[in-house]
Amino acid sequence: MADAASLFKQAESAWRAGNGAEAKAAAEQVLADDPVHVGALMILANLCFATGDVAGARPHLERLAILMPDEVMIRNNLGRACLAAEDLGAAAEAFTTVLETAPANARALDGLGIVRHRQGDYAEATDLHGRAVAADPGFAAGWCNLGIACTDLGRYADGAAALDRALTLDPDDARTRFNRAILYLLMGDLAAGWPMYEARLAFQTMATPPGQRWNGDALAGARVLLIPEQGFGDVIQFARFTPRVRDRGGVPVLAVPGALTALMAAQGWGVEIADADNPPEVPLWCPVMSLGAVLGLTAEDISGAAYLRAPTADTREGAGPRIGLAWSGNPTHRRDRARSLRLADLAPLLNVPGVRFVNLQVGLRPDDAAEMARRPDLFAETPGLGSFADTAAVVAGLDLVISADTAVLHLAGAMGRPAWGLLPFVPDWRWGLSGEATPWYDSLRLYRQPALGDWPSVVTRVAADLGRIAKG
After folding, report:
1. Which residues pair with 441 in a beta bridge?
2. Which domains does the chain have, with CATH numbers?
3. Which of 115, 274, 355, 373 has its Cα between 20 and 30 A from that of 229?
4. Cα 132 from Cα 104, distance rounded (Å)
5. Helix, strand, coil shares, percent, the chain, to 5
6. Is the pTM above the cut of 0.85?
7. pLDDT tens for residues 230-267?
8. Distance between CA atoms of residues 295 and 246, nearest Å
């Protein structure tokens, strides 16, 4: 049996030759004999980073940090591994340990900035990222993170400047290009935004079907599979462009998640609707959110007119207007902390007399469930919403929908139903920077936070306007 020294040489040679499997096996054999072998631990940690399993490097880096407590690179990499594992406390500890002895270490400042950003402290994140790029002006990822943090503070010009600086240093970085696209689209510059928005496909998790990706070329009767991505609201928003594939000579096939299948199949667009989990094999495919770039959509192509209809309408007689409520979106969304409310946040609205509230919220968070248990008579109706066809039937019979930035808001707008959208201070790009109207949906009225996190003023305004409706 080979000794540890020979095995490590084997692991080292395999690592340098790009043979990861052999390097891993040999390094693990080394550690079986010598659990504190620094070289073997480093090879295993590096292999995890090289294969994208950053979180998997954590146990190796934790052992290395004990063996080499003053090694800054080890601590910084440990922080990154903890970030990948979503252990923000451990990540902060690793980066802070570095900064105690190296307060101008750009990677540690940037890493701690990422922690603070994920914790919702955008001001502190901006300060830390700013210090990181001051320490290392050539740090492209630091400029990108500074741009994102500035954007989430509503400092759009500073965000754009930082992202532009990142692009001068690393023009092809997908994450930077995507975040710059968000700012272009938010400002209404579709021509600049759509092409850069395609950068999301480099890091977004999405099943790639067989066939070739359609790039917008003229079609000769070929079927094009439009595949969903991101959230339900995104599919609802961009489904309107599906028939335009015919304008290029193609046959559109719209793949949708199961919850949207019945609704989309009822539209009568002459478009094949497919199950996103089991789509047909066709020659060409295109992400549905790429239709902006592929079709070269301009502001003139966006109509706010209704384009969806409910298969049935659930109308009920009674005293007072029926008002549908949805207050939180996908909890895994990157900006959920900013865009979702708690049911308790709507208290002034819920206390408006003469209104029948209808619960459109799918999925209750613990605080909301507790609030509903405390106020069991809050909703006049809590319909079963097994699919968006069910939700559309309810929305069709409502006098008004009030919703945070959720798929329900998109659904109401797409149906042309009156709806009020509650938006954070820094909105999603599609809602633009200002104003109560949106070109995407004529029936929507937007209520925007005047400052970061200021839901009370939004809810107070909505409650006052709803009170006027209730009084007739």
Report:
1. 438
2. 4-197 (1.25.40.10), 213-301 (no CATH), 322-470 (3.40.50.2000)
3. 115
4. 7
5. 55, 10, 35
6. yes
7. 789 999 999 999 999 998 999 999 999 999 999 999 99
8. 12
